[in-house]
Amino acid sequence: MRQVIAPLHLLKIAVVVLGVACGGMQQASAQVKLADKLAPSSLTAAPRKAEPRVIDSIVAVVNTDVITRQELDARVALVEARMRQQGAAMPLRSLLEKQILERMIVDRAQLQLAADSGIKIDDVMLDRAMARLAEQNKLSMQDFRNQLEREGTPYARFREEIREEITMQRIREREVDNKLQITESEVDNYIEAQKNAPQSQPEYNLAQILVRIPENASAEQIAARRARADEVAQQLRSGADFAKLAASYSDSIDALKGGELGWRTTDRLPQLFVDAVAQLNQGDLSAVVKSASGFHILKVVGKRTQSVLKGTSTAAAPAVEQTHARHILIKVNTIVTSAEALRKLTDLKQRLDNKAATFEELAKLYSNDLSASKGGDLGWIYPGDTVPEFERAMNLLKPGEVSAPIETPFGYHLIQVIERKNQDVSQERQRLTARQAIRERKLEEASQDWVRQLRDRAYVEYRLEEK
């Protein structure tokens, strides 16, 4: 494996070194020409050697890729600009630099895994994501672009950030979200607990500082990480700014946002967090608590009361329209472009219109979804169960009709509605709501654990001090 990786790795390093050498040779050549013009013709003094000029350098090696000084400086400048705009307390430049480099290492490892898995966000999908962002901010695309530029964020750089964010979201969905297991007994216990819960429950806006424990850590490593967490906790008790220390020391993915998790009800927080802050008021700090990911310090940024709908009675629940549908999915990746996926589904739609094949037959042959083995059958779908693009197209169809190819974040689909029904499904919906709440509670810790494992398994070589 090393013999295959090494040439790629050395090639990227050679490009940086070659840039340094070329810079030095160009500067030396310019000085020789200048000396020829100024020196008398009778003199033949040798020109002075030019000092090498470093164009760029490598600050970290991540598996088969490198992070350069220019990339790190650009990211640091961007984060500093955003923190100043938000009025956040600025950590020391050296601490912020190390924190951002670690974030870039984790991101790079995720992007490499996504690329190896064939996940690719093409320009068409990216353009639609950018349009949705502009729409959410109630701006036209041009106004959205102008606002970014006014805030000091180059539009092209922001666009690539969004591409990377979507790519990492896709790989996390595949590696974490889709692998979460929720048992029927967990759902039963959740519903029973909700029956006995008060009519209102606290909702928290928490911030966290996470001191990560490496995978397969020794007792000495765990003790060292605990000591680090205790040191940070002591600084906080002495009045240090939480957001500043989060940006300086936290290993959590939300570190550069001051560690804030946003408003969540207790049923959508890890139970460990709920227990740690149960007796705390706004502004209070928790003790250091340990999870599988590491040591956490929590701050109650905000606390309010949220009304809870029990859902224990089913008598007055309205009827809900359900749709029984199936689909054929062609995913877009490094092998299949958007144009090719669209062309393939257009051909399949024509075959269906000509009755040359059944939907079930074509789904089994061509669909890139787990439902392919069932002829693309997705079962009964409730409102909100699918992404908006899919649901809008599905709702326009009559039973038996097949849609034109439509695009979603998952790829391109042909959708067929089999039948619809309206019935009181409050009990079933109650279980679905419970399942979603349990999933959200588990997802936080599962995502942190997956990122930790991915980071610890990556080959990383630091060269940050080499400037």
Number of DSSP helices? 14
Terminal CA distance reads: 30 Å
Highest-level CATH class of the domain at 320-423: Alpha Beta
Listing every helix as H and every strand as E from the N terminus to the C terminus, the arrangement reads: HEEHHHHHHEHHEHEEEHHEHEEHE
Structural class: alpha+beta
Uncertain runs are 1-44, 309-317
CATH topology of the domain at 320-423: Chitinase A, domain 3
Catalytic activity: [protein]-peptidylproline (omega=180) = [protein]-peptidylproline (omega=0)
Organism: Actimicrobium antarcticum
Pfam families: Rotamase, Rotamase_3, SurA_N
Domain PpiC: 201-302, 320-419
Please describe the structure with a list of short key phrases separated by commas or semicolons.
four-stranded antiparallel beta sheet, 467 residues, 11 strands, single chain, Chitinase A, domain 3, alpha+beta
Description:
With 467 residues, the chain is of the alpha+beta class. It has a domain at 320-423: Chitinase A, domain 3, CATH 3.10.50.40. Helix content is 50%, strand content 17%. The chain is built from 14 helices and eleven strands. It has helices spanning 2-38, 69-86, 93-116, 123-136, 141-150, 155-175, 184-196, 219-237, 242-249, 271-277, 338-353, 359-366, 388-395, 426-457, and strands at residues 58-62, 65-68, 200-212, 260-265, 289-290, 294-307, 320-330, 377-381, 406-408, 411-423, 460-462. Strands 4-3-6-5 form a four-stranded antiparallel beta sheet. Strands 8-7-10-9 form a four-stranded antiparallel beta sheet. A hairpin with a 3-residue loop joins strand 5 and strand 6. Helix 2 (69-86) packs across helix 3. The longest helix is centred in the N-terminal third of the chain and has 37 residues, at 2-38. The two termini are 30 Å apart. Residues 1-44 and 309-317 have low confidence and may be disordered.
